[in-house]
Specification:
Radius of gyration: 18 Å
Shape: globular
Order of helices and strands: EHEHHHEHEHHHHHEHHH
CATH superfamily: P-loop containing nucleotide triphosphate hydrolases
Distance between the termini: 31 Å
CATH architecture: 3-Layer(aba) Sandwich
Helix content: 40-55%
Largest sheet: 5 strands, parallel
Number of domains: 1
CATH class: Alpha Beta
Strand content: 5-15%
Length: 243
């Protein structure tokens, strides 16, 4: 018998990826989705399992044999490090909206940021470098020689890296956009035969709903600081339209 198809969902932060992972957990057996807490976590709330590249690549052959779906905040290149035959999926989001969602996330979950404005959080060097600045381009432009984790690398991008990000994005087997998330989920169902009883498109997880003010000038600043991500997102839209 042939080996069943295996997948890797490249989860870019604040793109509706958590909602999609929850749906994947309804499709696959619990142990078939990496990371599975009962097997892959070292401690309660072990977020490191979701971002640590060496730990992912060090999975035993026995554990890899169990996994049908890898998920996590990992750069695209690790999909080939694990298995070049993996079917890849990812979702990108309009960069200004993604950034605002990231800032709301940190204001909501980290006590030190709760009294701060979104602009103040944006000015925090660690937040900006690790989670905001052309983050989507980073995820798709990294290579093994960078030796870092996609979610907290703080890389300096250039045109060469941007072109690599475009090339890798074009290799994603199923690409979606947060703004048309329902279409992405329905296409996954149609293409892979998942959720035969139907996919829940109404339940979303980890969604920012706070109505904190975002001035137009601040939106313009975010756009100016994330030129590579804006260009990559436009390219992603063209790929999705051509699907």
């Amino acid at each position: 018998m042939s080996r069943p198809e295996r997948f890797f969902f490249v989860h870019v932060m604040k793109t509706a990826g958590t909602s999609f992972v929850r749906q994947l957990q309804q499709q696959f057996p619990a142990e078939a989705v990496y990371p599975f807490p009962a097997v892959d976590w070292i401690s309660p709330h072990d977020f490191d399992a979701y971002i640590n590249i060496p730990r992912l690549l060090a999975l035993t052959p026995e554990r890899r044999a169990q996994v049908r779906m890898y998920t996590g905040h990992f750069p695209f290149y690790v999909t080939h490090e694990i298995d070049p035959t993996l079917t890849t999926l990812s979702v990108l989001r309009e960069p200004v909206e993604r950034t605002i969602s990231v800032l709301k996330h940190f204001k909501r979950v980290e006590e030190r940021f709760r009294p701060c404005s979104l602009e103040t959080i944006y000015d925090d060097r660690q937040i900006f470098r690790f989670f905001v600045e052309n983050h989507q381009t980073e995820v798709f432009s990294m290579v093994a020689a960078d030796g870092e984790q996609a979610i907290n690398c703080g890389m300096t991008l250039d045109d060469t890296r941007y072109e690599r990000a475009r090339e890798n994005l074009a290799r994603v087997d199923l690409l979606g956009l947060t703004e048309t998330y329902d279409d992405f989920a329905l296409e996954a169902r149609r293409r892979f035969g998942w959720w035969p009883a139907g996919v829940d498109l109404d339940t979303r997880t980890n969604v920012s709903t706070e109505e904190w003010d975002v001035a137009p000038a601040f939106r313009d600043r975010i756009a100016a600081d994330n030129a590579y991500d804006l260009a990559l997102y436009d390219y992603a839209r063209s790929l999705v339209r051509a699907r």
